[in-house]
Amino acid sequence: MIQLKPPILTITGPTASGKSTLAEELARRFPIEIISVDSAVVYRGMDIGTAKPTQEIRREIPHHLIDIRDPATAYSAADFREDAINVVEQVLSRGRIPCLTGGTMLYLKALKHGIVHLPSADPVVRQEISERAERDGWPGIHAELELVDPEAAARIGPNDPQRLQRALEVYVLTGRALSDHHKKGNPDCPFDLVEVAILPERQLLHQRIAGRFQEMLHRGLVHEVGKLLEREDIDSELPSMKSVGYRQVAHYLAGHYDHEEMEDRAIAATRRLAKHQYTWLNSWQNLYRLSEPDTEKVLKIEPVISILERGGESTG
Predict the structure, then answer these.
(1) pTM of the model
(2) What is the rounded CA–CA span in Å between residue 15 and residue 144?
(3) pLDDT digits (tens, 9 = 90+) for 58-73
(4) C-alpha to C-alpha distance for 215 and 205, rounded to whole angstroms
(5) How far is CA 218 from CA 8, 16, 31, 246, 270, in A?
(6) Which of 24, 105, 173, 258 could be 280's S-S partner, Cβ–Cβ 3.0 to 4.6 Å?
């Protein structure tokens, strides 16, 4: 007997597209609990620059995977996958509706396709590869890779030292091609993701991004970053502090550029992030695309209706 996967509502899209607004509006009408798909809101003390939902909203609507890590620690896509699966199962066990909401595309990819577990970097093997590269050049390393992993060699150019080194290192350490690891290492997603993507017109999104960053500055983003950097265990090179907006403010506080340039750089970086998110989403199949966070349009999507009806009676 085939075991059907439970369908799980997912709301995604580029930054500032209105994902959280849509999820919150649905949660006020149905017994929804929101599970964040965001690599920055996991960190405590990073509230303004992540557009984290307020405490008032979080008291009204259950949220998960927010404030679960100290900003001095790392949080990976593998961590997210494990945590998200556990939380979804818990929400389902209570007879409520989980709604994955966010725009960290790597996290969604990890949830959908799994994580490949590869060996850690080995300094001895890396040194050997580097010495051969100094002798024969990186095209010579590329030729070596072609012999043991032609698929990876086709993807990686002869002038990409970091990826060439890693692909050959994996083969040396495991005896298996990197391409083979990717083919065999991905567990299936235990859920059937019903993905709604909000994809606004680019110029409109750019205006929202600029306006939102100005609002973050008004609310005290510079002070927030400054307080974080006062800690001895936090610096601008940590993954948490490389989040868009935080990186630029940290560099401003370090005197690398003035306030106006910090604003311009942060807004430009956020636009680049949105461009990458559009690229990810445009390559994904079976998305229900919206141009705006329109609740009524979402409620006309048959698979979404099915999820909400099975999850409980509408409250409004």
Answers:
(1) 0.81
(2) 41
(3) 999 999 999 999 999 9
(4) 15
(5) 37, 17, 34, 15, 17
(6) 105
